[in-house]
């Protein structure tokens, strides 16, 4: 039944498209009608075989309640689009404008805590989180830690991803990444041993697929690696009698340790099409629906092959496979560099954050004493002042929960954040031109501002001048009860280039100062 | 009485808010909402054909999937799903598309207190981004009651754990209407005075709870202004005249 319907589709498509020659393969226009039908029979069978070959990417066809509604809800590539993709590939063009061997743009961002990474490969969006806990080791490997990878094909990524048990492609993805990391001994397991035979660290990697734009394996692999490189596990020491008790030190007592990663296995996926051994690197979602077979090669930057996965599909000659391996090592080098640069930037920021925390901890004590010695209303004014100051401080410099206890008076921190906010406001528009893909805007604008901020933390004289004028504003604000609160237009104007909007509305009447740093006040409401 | 909060906010201050929408390419609607460090990503697919087994086929069905950051889905997640489903059901116009399912998928990116209100705000923005017909928007806030009885808004995770009790409150957003003043009042009160959802944890007296509701309502008025503005803003970088009045 499916066979005849696609045949019909092919015929109608060609008739309709006979005017526009771009969709047709070039040789078919001049043939008489009889051979055209033959051509269609051949091509429709290949269409069906490609469809069948790509079924594994739509996992949930067999299980579940109503087959009809699920079929109605799945996305299918039209015959026109399939033909277009294949024809374009014949002239070395891909539908998103890339060359066949070109990789998409890879963007790696990190979250606040250690061990959380967000990777975007074109339209594909994957998040990785790494966590650890102490467990008993496996019996046959008492000296090694364990590592487990959990992949979640979130229904958010694709309407065909179902909740519940992972489908074939989810399991395959998890296994490829697992093999690349575990069997190539990329992560050092023996350093995770605490008490041989009793307690070891178990590393858990959670990969959340948020957006399916094709080539999930590569993106998820990069997310796992980035998260592993930035993860820090708590330091623990042996104590008690016999040295059998394990004390896990919280992060503020002792710095957590990074994992030992020997090398970075990078996965590169190739897509093979049934027409003339065409091959593409990093297929998109539509190309995945058309292609006849795929191969994933996991290599590291030194050219060692960690894993190769080619599960069925179109047969590929040996020379092509060798070509793929060579291409993969090249790509692996550039991707490794990409990951390492991003991790470096994150580590630098982390270091600056820690340095800042320590320097302000000292300064904060001083300011607390000053406040206590000062008058009561000045105290109230100052505190309101500090609290109403830049939110950049909260966003970027927020210490870990552990160190909140250290910084009770955030005087100097907030003052220095004034600087950051003013610099940030000016640099705001260009920094945020990442568009909707800036997942964590914190990390975009951080580096230059952080350096300035850490310098600013040393000198408090500058912000004091601003602080005194703010004082008067906020005293006024404290008294008036503003029912008609309004959002600040200047803040929106600077941000109009971005969908991310940062708004802190405040009761303070607008002065020139507000134009300079529009987004640095929290919304305040007077006590009712 | 000023309660000294660890990060220097006054009891009535909210953390900085950030809202962005249309961040995912496959989902019909998507939004991310962050309050301070708490960040939630929501995606909406729908309406899809057919309803679930025990649902009323004469109405649209809302399905909420809550994805925690790490770990398995357990009872707490199921409870959050149920609360969000009921909240969203009360703001959607369910009779427009009968016998359809709209899925809302919520992914927790970071949890630093007030997670459920953040998720409800994100889901509401995602529903607007997807174009699902709604009666009005919903804005959510978390109010907690300190030991001495004062009310503190928008706690961080540490504060939530230390406070005596806290309440998640969801209100309708304040209406900006061209109709005359009295025509959209419900029982003589404006629409935004009603409570859509209220979930409390811990111990608090009736007076404290009513104080929470008052404060929460005032905060939600501001929140709904923010939400309206961020949703009206154009998402195209080239469009500099971004928002309406």
Automatic annotation (TrEMBL), chain A:
<dbReference type="GO" id="GO:0035925">
    <property type="term" value="F:mRNA 3'-UTR AU-rich region binding"/>
</dbReference>
<feature type="compositionally biased region" description="Polar residues">
    <location>
        <begin position="402"/>
        <end position="425"/>
    </location>
</feature>
<dbReference type="InterPro" id="IPR033100">
    <property type="entry name" value="Rrp45"/>
</dbReference>
<dbReference type="GO" id="GO:0034475">
    <property type="term" value="P:U4 snRNA 3'-end processing"/>
</dbReference>
<comment type="similarity">
    <text>Belongs to the RNase PH family.</text>
</comment>
<feature type="compositionally biased region" description="Basic residues">
    <location>
        <begin position="518"/>
        <end position="528"/>
    </location>
</feature>
<feature type="compositionally biased region" description="Basic and acidic residues">
    <location>
        <begin position="478"/>
        <end position="488"/>
    </location>
</feature>
<feature type="domain" description="Exoribonuclease phosphorolytic">
    <location>
        <begin position="102"/>
        <end position="234"/>
    </location>
</feature>
<feature type="domain" description="Exoribonuclease phosphorolytic">
    <location>
        <begin position="263"/>
        <end position="330"/>
    </location>
</feature>
<feature type="compositionally biased region" description="Basic and acidic residues">
    <location>
        <begin position="441"/>
        <end position="450"/>
    </location>
</feature>
<dbReference type="GO" id="GO:0016075">
    <property type="term" value="P:rRNA catabolic process"/>
</dbReference>
<dbReference type="Pfam" id="PF03725">
    <property type="entry name" value="RNase_PH_C"/>
</dbReference>
<dbReference type="InterPro" id="IPR036345">
    <property type="entry name" value="ExoRNase_PH_dom2_sf"/>
</dbReference>
<dbReference type="InterPro" id="IPR027408">
    <property type="entry name" value="PNPase/RNase_PH_dom_sf"/>
</dbReference>
<keyword id="KW-0963">Cytoplasm</keyword>
<dbReference type="GO" id="GO:0071035">
    <property type="term" value="P:nuclear polyadenylation-dependent rRNA catabolic process"/>
</dbReference>
<dbReference type="GO" id="GO:0034476">
    <property type="term" value="P:U5 snRNA 3'-end processing"/>
</dbReference>
<dbReference type="GO" id="GO:0034473">
    <property type="term" value="P:U1 snRNA 3'-end processing"/>
</dbReference>
<dbReference type="GO" id="GO:0000177">
    <property type="term" value="C:cytoplasmic exosome (RNase complex)"/>
</dbReference>
<protein>
    <recommendedName>
        <fullName>Protein ECERIFERUM 7</fullName>
    </recommendedName>
</protein>
<dbReference type="GO" id="GO:0000176">
    <property type="term" value="C:nuclear exosome (RNase complex)"/>
</dbReference>
<dbReference type="InterPro" id="IPR001247">
    <property type="entry name" value="ExoRNase_PH_dom1"/>
</dbReference>
UniProtKB/TrEMBL annotation, chain B:
<feature type="domain" description="Exoribonuclease phosphorolytic">
    <location>
        <begin position="13"/>
        <end position="133"/>
    </location>
</feature>
<dbReference type="GO" id="GO:0003723">
    <property type="term" value="F:RNA binding"/>
</dbReference>
<keyword id="KW-0694">RNA-binding</keyword>
<dbReference type="GO" id="GO:0000177">
    <property type="term" value="C:cytoplasmic exosome (RNase complex)"/>
</dbReference>
<dbReference type="Pfam" id="PF01138">
    <property type="entry name" value="RNase_PH"/>
</dbReference>
<dbReference type="GO" id="GO:0005730">
    <property type="term" value="C:nucleolus"/>
</dbReference>
<keyword id="KW-0698">rRNA processing</keyword>
<dbReference type="GO" id="GO:0071028">
    <property type="term" value="P:nuclear mRNA surveillance"/>
</dbReference>
<dbReference type="InterPro" id="IPR050080">
    <property type="entry name" value="RNase_PH"/>
</dbReference>
<dbReference type="InterPro" id="IPR027408">
    <property type="entry name" value="PNPase/RNase_PH_dom_sf"/>
</dbReference>
<dbReference type="GO" id="GO:0034475">
    <property type="term" value="P:U4 snRNA 3'-end processing"/>
</dbReference>
<dbReference type="GO" id="GO:0006364">
    <property type="term" value="P:rRNA processing"/>
</dbReference>
<dbReference type="GO" id="GO:0000176">
    <property type="term" value="C:nuclear exosome (RNase complex)"/>
</dbReference>
<dbReference type="GO" id="GO:0004527">
    <property type="term" value="F:exonuclease activity"/>
</dbReference>
<keyword id="KW-0269">Exonuclease</keyword>
<dbReference type="InterPro" id="IPR001247">
    <property type="entry name" value="ExoRNase_PH_dom1"/>
</dbReference>
<dbReference type="InterPro" id="IPR036345">
    <property type="entry name" value="ExoRNase_PH_dom2_sf"/>
</dbReference>
<keyword id="KW-0271">Exosome</keyword>
<keyword id="KW-0539">Nucleus</keyword>
<keyword id="KW-0378">Hydrolase</keyword>
<dbReference type="InterPro" id="IPR020568">
    <property type="entry name" value="Ribosomal_Su5_D2-typ_SF"/>
</dbReference>
<protein>
    <recommendedName>
        <fullName>Exosome complex exonuclease RRP46 homolog</fullName>
    </recommendedName>
</protein>
């Amino acid at each position: 039944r499916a066979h005849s319907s696609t045949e019909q589709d092919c015929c109608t498509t060609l008739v309709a498209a006979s005017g526009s020659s771009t969709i047709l393969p070039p040789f078919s226009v001049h043939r008489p009608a009889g051979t055209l039908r033959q051509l269609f029979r051949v091509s429709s069978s290949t269409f069906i075989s490609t469809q069948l070959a790509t079924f594994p990417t739509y996992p949930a066809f067999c299980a579940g309640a109503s087959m009809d509604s699920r079929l109605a809800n799945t996305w299918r590539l039209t015959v026109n689009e399939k033909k277009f993709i294949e024809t374009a590939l014949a002239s070395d063009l891909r539908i998103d404008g890339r060359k066949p061997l070109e990789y998409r743009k890879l963007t790696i961002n990190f979250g606040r805590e250690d061990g959380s990474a967000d990777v975007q490969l074109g339209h594909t969006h994957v998040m990785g989180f790494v966590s650890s806990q102490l467990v008993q080791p496996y019996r046959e490997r008492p000296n090694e830690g364990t590592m487990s990878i959990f992949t979640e094909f979130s229904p958010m990524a694709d309407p065909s991803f179902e909740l519940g048990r992972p489908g074939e492609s989810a399991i395959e993805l998890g296994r490829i990444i697992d093999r690349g990391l575990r069997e190539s001994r990329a992560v050092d397991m023996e350093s995770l041993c605490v008490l041989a035979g009793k307690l070891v660290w178990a590393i858990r990697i959670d990969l959340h697929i948020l957006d399916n734009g094709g080539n999930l394996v590569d993106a998820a692999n990069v997310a796992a690696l980035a998260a592993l490189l930035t993860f820090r596990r708590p330091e623990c020491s042996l104590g008690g009698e016999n040295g059998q008790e394990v004390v896990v030190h919280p992060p503020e007592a002792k710095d957590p340790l990074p994992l030992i990663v020997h090398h970075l296995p990078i996965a590169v996926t190739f897509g093979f099409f049934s027409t003339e051994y065409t091959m593409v690197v990093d297929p998109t979602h539509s190309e995945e629906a058309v292609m006849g077979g795929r191969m994933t090669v996991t290599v590291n930057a030194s050219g060692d092959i960690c894993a190769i996965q080619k599960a069925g599909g179109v047969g590929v000659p040996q020379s092509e496979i060798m070509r793929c391996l060579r291409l993969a090592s090249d790509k692996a080098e550039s991707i490794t560099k990409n990951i390492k640069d991003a991790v470096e930037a994150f580590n630098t920021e982390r270091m600056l954050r820690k340095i800042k925390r320590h320097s302000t901890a000292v300064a904060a004590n001083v300011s607390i004493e000053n406040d206590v010695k000062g008058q009561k209303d000045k105290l109230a004014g100052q505190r309101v002042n500090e609290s109403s100051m830049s939110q950049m401080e909260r966003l970027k410099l927020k210490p870990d929960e552990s160190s909140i206890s250290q910084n009770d008076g955030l005087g100097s921190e907030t003052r220095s954040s004034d600087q950051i906010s003013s610099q940030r406001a000016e640099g705001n528009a260009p920094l945020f031109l990442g568009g909707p893909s800036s997942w964590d805007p914190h990390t975009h604008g951080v580096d230059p501002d952080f350096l300035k901020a850490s310098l600013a933390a040393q000198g408090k004289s500058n912000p004091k001048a601003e602080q005194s004028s703010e004082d008067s504003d906020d005293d006024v604000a404290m008294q008036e009860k503003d029912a008609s609160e309004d959002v600040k237009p200047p803040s929106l104007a600077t941000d109009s280039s971005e969908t991310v909007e940062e708004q802190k509305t405040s009761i303070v009447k607008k002065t020139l100062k507000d134009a300079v740093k529009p987004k640095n006040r929290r919304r305040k409401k007077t006590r009712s | 009485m000023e309660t000294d909060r660890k990060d220097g906010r006054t009891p009535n201050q909210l953390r900085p808010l950030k809202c962005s929408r249309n961040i995912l390419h496959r989902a019909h609607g998507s939004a991310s909402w962050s309050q301070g460090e708490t960040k939630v990503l929501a995606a909406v697919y729908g309406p899809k054909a057919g309803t679930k087994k025990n649902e009323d086929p004469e109405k649209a069905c809302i399905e909420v999937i809550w994805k925690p950051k790490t770990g398995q889905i357990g009872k707490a997640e199921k409870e959050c799903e149920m609360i969000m489903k009921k909240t969203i059901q009360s703001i959607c116009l369910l009779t427009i598309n009968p016998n359809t399912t709209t899925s809302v998928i919520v992914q927790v990116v970071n949890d630093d207190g007030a997670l459920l209100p953040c998720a409800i705000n994100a889901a509401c923005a995602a529903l607007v981004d997807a174009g699902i017909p709604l009666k009005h928007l919903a804005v959510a806030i978390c109010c907690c009651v300190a030991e001495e009885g004062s009310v503190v808004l928008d706690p961080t995770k540490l504060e939530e754990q230390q406070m005596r009790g806290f309440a998640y409150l969801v209100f309708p957003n304040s209406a900006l209407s061209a109709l005359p003043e009295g025509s959209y009042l419900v029982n003589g009160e404006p629409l935004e005075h009603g409570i859509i959802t209220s979930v409390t944890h811990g111990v608090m007296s009736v007076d404290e709870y009513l104080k929470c509701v008052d404060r929460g309502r005032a905060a939600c008025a501001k929140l709904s202004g923010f939400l309206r503005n961020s949703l009206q803003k154009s998402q195209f970088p080239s469009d500099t005249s971004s928002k309406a009045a």
